[in-house]
Amino acid sequence: MSDRRLVHVIDDEDGVRRSASFMLKTSGFATRTWESGVAFLKEARHAEPGCILLDIRMPEMDGLEVQQALKDRGIAMPVIVLTGHGDVTIAVRAMKAGAVDFIEKPFDSDVLLGAIARAFDRIDTAANVLVRAAEADVALGALTAREREVLDGLAQGYPNKTIAYDLGISARTVEVHRANVMAKLGARSLSDALRIAFAAGLGKTHG
């Protein structure tokens, strides 16, 4: 068995499987590619542990269904979701279901490697959820009430226009609050901000 860390690449597009695999191998990872979630699930119980790079839009079973099936089987490999359509709503659902991160295709190598590093950190630390929640609460303490409302809307997967309508403010104002939230949380991307929001318990459907 290789001592290199293994990444399972699950995508129905051959080109994506090849490019992701090449990028990861040149960065020192071992890879195994799968052309569908169904193919991976057939072998998942016996698959070598590692992290999973999972495409959202695939025939037969989409990424969210594969993610749920892994959870149902008690397979706890960390998942990074690939979305080719800038579909933030789906990506938010994936992160709520436990995904480490989401990445939009075509992906940048640094973004991909950063997400993979976080996935393996999660394995290494088996992150203490209570500590993460406490840290997230402290981070959110720096936000104004309105900024918190905007972050909560983002964590529910709502677009800026919907958040603006719900809060009775303009979409432009939502953008300003969103930028302030990112700055105060030290978040470089929406997924960074969402990780903090979910750890603090935001994003639960109201009512």
Write down the overall mean pLDDT. Answer: 88
Strand order of the largest sheet: 2-1-3-4-5
Largest sheet: 5 strands, parallel
Structural class: alpha/beta
Shape: globular
From the alpha carbons, calculate the radius of gyration and give it in angstroms.
Answer: 18 Å
Q: What proportion strand? A: 5-15%
What is the H/E string? EHEHEHEHEHHHHHH
Number of strands: 5
3D structure, described in words:
The protein has 207 residues and is an alpha/beta fold. 54% of the residues lie in helices and 12% in strands. It has helices at residues 14-26, 37-43, 63-72, 88-96, 109-125, 129-140, 145-155, 160-167, 171-185, 190-199; strands spanning 6-10, 30-34, 51-55, 79-83, 101-104. It has a five-stranded parallel beta sheet with strand order 2-1-3-4-5, sandwiched between helices. Strand 1 (6-10), helix 1 and strand 2 (30-34) form a beta-alpha-beta unit. The longest helix has 17 residues, at 109-125. It is globular, with a radius of gyration of 18 Å.
